[in-house]
Design a protein that fits this description.
four-stranded antiparallel sheet
């Protein structure tokens, strides 16, 4: 039937689960042309779905979050209940914790093995719309309806706010088909969010700085986005009836597809299969979705997130490279450098009478001309020691240290790798 529809793959990619506005959940087996398994014993108006390899969870407008078995395809138990409609469910990478977002001003993080064990995020000013676990499971990104993305550390029993990202996403209602989801790149160093300008902005997790962006592709508001399993590509869908596949490294469009009303998309965890659902309740499963040339990107190892100045590709500024002077043999074998054909002496010609080579006068007694050797250098005097003659100015500090200035404009980057970009 017409209405919002949601989908998810199991982590091993063997099954695809869909849920929507009717009271039927369908489980499809990857690679099978047979009919899906229908589960009728479920709530109506489902608004979210998430899955592990053995169970899957659904959330509904009645505020219930239910657990179903993928072995028996039967209702198992009630995980939790909220007083207002469920908006999103996210499973941690180890599938132990389930984060639940509703129209309430809190997020519940429930232990799927023991529903009594619950963590709460209760300091949200507006209801949450999307939830996204970090690949390590240590952080949870919460996109709220006020246009702010909150990053919480959930390594302790009391989740703590790590960073607040303002001005990234637009304000949206909880049931809006437009997306403000923070989608984590598989390497965990950054996440991508759809912006009000119909672009996708990549943001660094550590310092919150904006990195590369995927721009100029869509003419309508973005409704869904998802990284490929290895992070080499990004898929986006929008209200302009387009699905775009972007190359992560270059932020260039690799492929375009024309489909209307796409509101949720999903990559297969291993194979070249792409699935999406529409606001009309339609499900599309496309084997060999990418061309043979583009499909090669799926075979690559984990690719890095698109940073402007990638810390992984920069060498440390604290290590000084050794300089090579090209000299071989002891220093005593060195001879005085001879003039080149274009030396100053050859250009000016011979000196006239009265001109002197030694134009520097030792008028302050600092010892500039004392005991000059054949190379134009002062001879070593044991009385001077290793610090040089008394008249020579000494450094006031043991070693030079850089002066780190505060950023004076929004584009300034933090001090990192012994440098700062202004």
């Amino acid at each position: 039937p017409n209405g919002p529809t949601f989908l998810t793959y199991t982590p091993d990619g063997t099954k695809l689960i869909t849920a929507g506005s009717n009271n039927v959940i369908r489980v499809y087996t990857t690679g099978s042309d047979g009919e899906p398994t229908n589960i009728d014993d479920c709530s109506e108006n489902n608004t979210a779905v998430a899955a592990s390899n053995s169970i899957f969870l659904t959330g509904a407008e009645d505020g219930s979050v239910c657990v179903y078995s993928l072995e028996t395809y039967l209702y198992d138990r009630l995980l939790t209940r909220c007083t207002l409609p469920i908006r999103d469910i996210a499973l941690s990478p180890d599938c132990i914790w389930a984060a639940v977002a509703s129209d309430e001003l809190e997020v519940k993080i429930v232990d799927t093995r023991d529903i009594v064990n619950v963590l709460f995020i209760r300091d949200l000013p507006k209801p949450p719309k999307h939830l996204s676990f970090h690949p390590s499971g240590s952080y949870l990104a919460v996109s709220c309806t006020n246009g702010v993305v909150y990053l919480y550390s959930i390594t302790t029993e009391d989740p703590t706010l790590s960073t607040k990202f303002e001005g990234l996403v637009r304000r949206l209602e909880g049931d809006d088909e437009k997306s403000s989801r923070a989608s984590w790149h598989p390497d965990g160093r950054a996440f991508a969010v759809p912006t009000a300008t119909r672009d996708v902005q990549v943001v660094s997790r550590d310092d919150g700085e904006k990195q590369r962006s995927f721009s100029g592709g869509h003419m309508g508001d973005i409704t869904a986005l998802a990284w490929s399993p290895n992070g080499a590509m990004l898929a986006t869908a929008a209200s302009d009836r387009k699905i775009l596949i972007w190359e992560t490294a270059t932020q260039k469009i690799m492929a375009r597809y024309d489909y209307a009303g796409v509101i949720n998309i999903a990559w297969h965890p291993q194979d070249n299969i792409f699935s999406f659902v529409t606001s009309e309740g339609e499900l599309f499963i496309y084997p060999n979705f990418l061309s043979s040339d583009n499909a090669q990107h799926l075979q690559r190892p984990l690719q890095p997130a698109p940073f402007i100045h990638d810390p992984l590709s920069e060498t440390s500024g604290n290590t000084r490279k050794s300089l090579t002077n090209g000299l071989k043999g002891p220093l005593g074998d060195r001879t005085r450098r001879k003039g080149t054909p274009d030396s100053l002496d050859d250009i000016l010609g011979p000196q006239s009478e009265g001109e002197e080579d030694d134009f520097v006068e030792d008028d302050d007694g600092a010892g500039y001309l004392d005991d000059i050797n054949g190379y134009g250098k002062r001879r070593y005097n044991q009385a001077d020691g290793f610090e040089g003659p008394e008249g020579k100015r000494r450094a006031t500090h043991q070693s030079w240290q850089p002066r780190i200035h505060q950023s004076f404009q929004p584009g300034s980057t933090p001090w990192r790798g012994n440098r700062r970009y202004l």
